[in-house]
Fold this sequence. Notes:
The protein is α+β, with helices and mostly antiparallel strands.
Amino acid sequence: MPVCEMDLREGGKYRWRWRNNDDNSEFGFTGVFRKLEPGVRIVHTQVYDAGTTGVGMGDGEANLTATFTETNGITTVTTVIDFGSKASRDASMATGMTDGMEQGYQLLEQVLSSTPSQPEAGQARA
């Protein structure tokens, strides 16, 4: 992910870009944060940039809402994407995006479930 620019505030913009290390193809997203409720909900827009992949994901702006619900120490993340049209939704789903999202969530789960190592005596934690 060579580009990850985030202005994490309501009205702030973001730009994300991914690169395939095998063929150097790239794609990305841009958008605006509409609503931020820490620990509860994030609402943002999303516009797809096919970059050098040539793979389309529909037209226009999608609206995403991520909701975080904690029960007994376990947080469930629910993401709802409004693509604006059935055609845009179908084009997005045809790219295999759900596989990529699932891989990302699995990696996040690994990071969040790992126990940070304790610094040795006299060392500061980074």
